[in-house]
């Protein structure tokens, strides 16, 4: 990408926001989802390596590598604010944690889990897309 394209993609400072286009919205949501999968997936690999003793050397090492990769993903967001990016990511993390647990760990969410997740995702979307 050119410098002009990068300047367009990223807000000018931590308190500004980009012009939200459908492609930037899709990119941003995709990055939150991918970050969540990497963080939760990496954490889960470490978890099963330590707690369940499933191939500990392999799963813990793999989990650590996935967590390192996770650390890079939020830097690709189209907003310069570290604090806002990670705060908003927290809402996606809540929802994705429940989804992961239901798929891979046999967790059964209840009404409180669904309502809390919905409130979290609505709240962080308001914070993220609020015009500044």
Short descriptors:
132 residues; mainly alpha; 5 helices; 72% helix; 0% strand
- Please state the structural category: mainly alpha
Oligomer: single chain
Count of alpha/pi helices: 5
User: What are the segments in which pLDDT stays under 50 over at least 5 consecutive residues?
Assistant: none
Q: How many runs of DSSP E, i.e. beta strands?
A: 0
Strand content: under 5%
Question: Quick check: average pLDDT?
Answer: 91
**Measured distance between first and last alpha carbons:** 26 Å
Q: Assign an overall shape.
A: flat
What is the element string, with H for helices and E for strands? Answer: HHHHH
- Rg from Cα: 17 Å
Helix share bin? over 70%
Main β-sheet, in a few words? none
Question: What is the gist of this entry?
Answer:
The protein is mostly helical and 132 residues long. It is 72% helix and 0% strand.
Topology:
Layout lengths: L2 H7 L12 H29 L5 H17 L9 H23 L6 H19 L3
Helix pairs in contact: 2-3, 2-4, 4-5
Structure write-up:
- Helices cover 72% and strands 0% of the residues.
- It has 132 residues and is mainly alpha-helical.
- The longest helix is centred in the first third of the chain and has 29 residues, at 22-50.
- The protein is flat and about 50 Å long.
- The two termini are 26 Å apart.
């Amino acid at each position: 990408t050119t410098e002009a394209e990068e300047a367009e993609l990223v807000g000018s400072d931590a308190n500004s926001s980009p012009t939200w286009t459908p492609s930037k919205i899709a990119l941003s949501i995709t990055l939150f989802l991918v970050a969540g999968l990497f963080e939760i997936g990496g954490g889960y690999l470490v978890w099963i390596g330590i707690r369940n003793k499933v191939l500990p050397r392999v799963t813990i090492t793999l989990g650590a590598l996935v967590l390192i990769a996770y650390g890079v993903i939020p830097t690709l967001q189209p907003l310069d604010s570290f604090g806002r990016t990670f705060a908003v990511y927290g809402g996606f993390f809540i929802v994705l944690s429940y989804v992961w647990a239901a798929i891979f760990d046999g967790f059964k969410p209840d009404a409180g889990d669904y309502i809390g997740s919905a409130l979290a995702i609505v709240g962080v979307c308001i914070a993220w897309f609020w015009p500044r």
